[in-house]
Amino acid sequence: MSAVLDPSSYTQQLDEKVARLRALLAPFDAPEPAVFDSPREHYRLRAEFRLWREDGQRHYAMFAPGEKHVPILIDSFPIASQRINELMPRLKAAWQADAALSNKLFQVEFLTTLDGDAMVTLCYHRPLDEHWQRAAEQLASDLSVSIIGRSKGKRVVIGRDYAVEALEVAGRTFRYRQPEGAFTQPNGTVNQKMLNWAYEALGPRDDDLLELYCGNGNFTLPLATQVRKVLATEISKTSVAAALHNLDDNGVDNVTLVRLSAEELTEALNEVRPFRRLQGIDLKAYDFGSVFVDPPRAGMDVDTCELTRRFDNILYISCNPETLAANIEQLHDTHRVAKCALFDQFPYTHHMESGVLLVRR
């Protein structure tokens, strides 16, 4: 069966999200949000499926929330990219034809890009041997993908352990390495719209930018071209490695990246304690005019939110409008909402991505 979605209801669902965001930001006299819609189908660039054994064969399966024992068997997944839908039956045919691929295979993960790259992760409840290696190498060649094999305590890479994305911002194409297992924006089309909005909202500046939660440099690359220099932070080693590669690969040389959490950087800027990872970096040499934040769903903690108050401009991308509103409430006495936007990263769900530009009163 196919995933349940109704493109004819999309406009109504999006209108409901706009109304919800408008109501959350109304106490702060926010302007009308700019609205960036999503493709109605084939918008999700990554997907993860458990496998369910039935009639002697393994099938792609998903489960309703809270229900672990009644699978929904699927053959296609219309919300996923066309590349994922093209790969699904071919991969299934391959494991059905080869016990080396199917034996104790329990999960499949796809990562694709707008640029056409694809990576498939196969997860097993058994060690991976030379029979699997040979079969997987042939499969990677047949499907023109990279394959990652995972079993307890072991990871086998055939091809690359990352996919490569290309996104256009303000007429320039940026290329991104997206590592296996690291966070990437799921809706590439909307991500590209989000990057362009953030780029324009920040505007060209002659001072410096602080970026918290920079990930693989998704926003860092285009925003760095708008400012004198950037100090960016990220705690994940995998994301830091990808971000450093992406900066180098795109010739962006005005960014210093440090592996610190937002909370740790707050302590450093407040001179609470020194950090070895900041050795050789003179924080006082920066003339920060703006801060960019893209925090997890919990939003910014109280201390980090207070840190952002120091900056004239706070550019904030949020995957949780409720915590966004709570953070704005904390900052509202010193900053006003100058711009806001809704990015429909997750059609047919209640989730939404939003953005605001807060400027000092």
What does this structure look like?
With 361 residues, this protein is α/β, with parallel strands linked by helices. The chain folds into two domains: 7-40 and 187-360, Vaccinia Virus protein VP39 (Rossmann fold); 46-163, OB fold (Dihydrolipoamide Acetyltransferase, E2P). The protein is built from ten helices and 17 strands. The protein starts with 9 loop residues before the first helix and ends with a strand. It holds the Pfam family tRNA_U5-meth_tr. This is tRNA/tmRNA (uracil-C(5))-methyltransferase.
Provide keyphrases for this structure.
single chain; 361 residues; alpha/beta; Rossmann fold; OB fold (Dihydrolipoamide Acetyltransferase, E2P); 2 domains; eight-stranded mixed sheet; seven-stranded mixed sheet; globular; EC 2.1.1.35; MeTrfase_TrmA_AS
Describe the structure concisely for a colleague:
By secondary structure, the protein is an alpha/beta fold. The chain contains 10 helices and 17 strands. The strands form 3 sheets. An 8-stranded mixed beta sheet has the order 1-16-17-15-14-11-12-13, sandwiched between helices.
